Amino acid sequence: MSTNHFEILFVFGRPASGKSEFFDHIEKRDKETLLSQLHIAPFETIDDWFVLADKFREDDLWEKLTGKRKYSKLDNGVECVTDFLLYDYAILHLNRHALELTEKHPTFFKERTLLIEFSRGGEKNYEHTLSLFDPSILKRAGIMYVNADFET
Questions:
Q1: Which pTM value belongs to this model?
Q2: How does pLDDT run across 127-142, given as a tens digit for each residue?
Q3: 3-state DSSP helix/strand/coil percent for the chain, to nearest 5?
Q4: Rounded to 5 degrees, what angle do the CA atoms 37, 38, 41 make?
């Protein structure tokens, strides 16, 4: 396989900007087209949403035990983060996962791409969030930003 591919690709965009549609699109493409047109090798995806969702479920349990949540509140049944350090915590999980991939599978990036998805903005923007990743991860990475207005 060619080494003319992204080893790591950060996929950014605000919530509901189309990141999931991008992932759905590339999952349906054959390997050769994906590599030749987008420089994405067979890939693995990691996403901070799953870390956050685990903490929301943990909060459900804490609420049953203590009557209080630790990291989030429910707003009309939707979890909203109340402890904003939780976002950084989720990124540290992604960083650890990426580092473990490189340690456990040293040849992973020769034939594969790691896609890392998260959304950020506001006071703690992408610059801050990227600073939480190990330099060995950042030096292998490219960035794709999905930019779509709310109407789209």
A1: 0.86
A2: 899 999 999 999 999 9
A3: 45, 20, 35
A4: 110
State whether the Cα torsion 95-98-103-107 is positive or negative. negative
Going through the chain in order, the beta strands assigned E by DSSP cover: 8-12, 43-47, 72-75, 78-81, 113-117, 141-145
Reading the block at residue 103, the tokens are 């340690």
Place of tokens 């950084």: 88
Structure tokens at 38: 């987008």
Length in residues, the chain: 152
3-state secondary structure 60-100: HHHHHHHCCCCCEEEECCEEEECCCHHHHHHHHHHHHHHHH
Encode pLDDT of 12-49 as tens digits.
Answer: 887 778 888 899 999 999 999 999 999 999 999 999 98
Q: What letter would DSSP give residue 123?
A: T
